[in-house]
TrEMBL record:
Residues 6-282 form the Tryptophan synthase beta chain-like PALP domain. GO terms for molecular function: cysteine synthase activity. It comes from the Bacteria. Its cofactor is pyridoxal 5'-phosphate. It comes from Nitrosomonas stercoris. It catalyses: O-acetyl-L-serine + hydrogen sulfide = L-cysteine + acetate. The modification N6-(pyridoxal phosphate)lysine is found at K42. This is Cysteine synthase. Pyridoxal 5'-phosphate binds at N72, G175, T176, T177, G178, T179, S256. One of its GO terms (biological process) is cysteine biosynthetic process from serine. The lineage of its organism: Bacteria, Pseudomonadati, Pseudomonadota, Betaproteobacteria, Nitrosomonadales. CDD domains: CBS_like (cd01561).
Length: 298
């Protein structure tokens, strides 16, 4: 059977780091979610949320969908909406990278930028207002169980299979928390001893894709009992690790991926004989305008 673009989501590579872990008894692995067709781990929940809503008869092709995003979810939803025949309205703070804005509109999405001072909270509130005025159906990745379900059915099982069930530690940055929730639930059912480690930003850090939400905006899909511990990373650590992943491992990844890997390597320094998997949630090309990867040529 011929595939269409949405059938290319998932089954991403799991590769071993060769240099960054240093001399260690641990195996540190990176799940390359940038290999998804729209370039991030968010392809999985984007397809899950739209397709399952369609299967339930809540939406149908031609309808308008609404979502607040900091970037990757919006890109993934724009791609999926284009593939399945929906109109997509995306709300995003205006301080996100120009690459993200351009990719969303390239997929045909209508992009509404909100003032950066209001952060993602304002983008979420604005999306809710549009929904209440009847502009379209809001997917709401923050409370939609079809978000973590995509990782419970896809990302988690892939990691378990590719590590032959030898996984000991799972590390993921926390934003919407769909990835860590879905994977953690799956790993709990397979082996209680897998330690699930969430990554959040240190005070003052602004790392795209990694958030610590105010209590009023905490994602409803988040279950704190599924996370064994939380490691904090600074903006400097996240950006430096993104550069090192490219220069020392050949993995061109984004800033949140750098943050997650920085946490994974901190963890590796504390344990022995472990199999550690860190989510590399997107590619570095959508961060070029931020200056994280400086050009040193003439």
């Amino acid at each position: 059977m011929n595939k269409t673009i949405e059938h290319c989501i998932g089954h991403t590579p799991l590769i071993q780091l060769k240099r960054l872990p240093g001399k260690t008894s641990n195996t540190v692995l990176a799940k390359l979610e940038g290999n998804n067709p729209a370039g991030s781990v968010k392809d999985r929940p984007a397809y899950s949320m739209i397709m399952r809503a369609q299967q339930r008869g809540v939406i149908r092709p031609g309808d308008t969908l609404i979502e607040a995003t900091s970037g990757n979810t919006g890109i993934a939803l724009a791609m999926t909406a284009a593939a399945l025949g929906y109109h997509m309205i995306l709300l995003m703070p205006d301080n996100q990278s120009v690459e993200r804005q351009q990719v969303m509109t390239a997929y045909g999405a209508e992009l509404i930028l909100t003032p950066q001072e209001g952060g993602m909270e304002l983008a979420r509130d604005t999306a809710e207002q549009l929904y209440k005025t009847g502009r379209g159906f809001i997917l709401d990745q923050f409370s939609n169980p079809d978000n973590p379900l995509a990782h419970y059915e896809g990302t988690g099982p892939e990691i378990w299979q590719d590590t032959a069930g030898k996984l000991t530690h799972f590390v993921s940055s926390m934003g919407t928390t769909g990835t860590i929730m879905g994977c953690a639930r799956y790993f709990r059912e397979k082996q209680q001893k897998v330690e699930v480690v969430g990554v959040q930003p240190q005070e003052g850090a602004k790392i795209p894709g990694i958030r610590k939400w105010p209590e009023a905006y905490l994602p409803k899909i988040y279950q704190p009992d599924l996370v064994d511990r939380i490691l904090l990373v600074s903006q400097l650590e996240a950006e430096e690790m993104a550069r090192r992943l490219a220069a020392e491992e050949g993995i061109f990844a984004g800033i949140s991926s750098g943050g997650a890997m920085a946490a994974a390597l901190k963890l590796s320094a504390q344990v022995k004989n472990a199999v550690i998997v860190s989510i590399v949630c997107d590619r570095g090309d959508r961060y070029l305008s931020t200056g994280v990867f400086p050009f040193s040529g003439a």
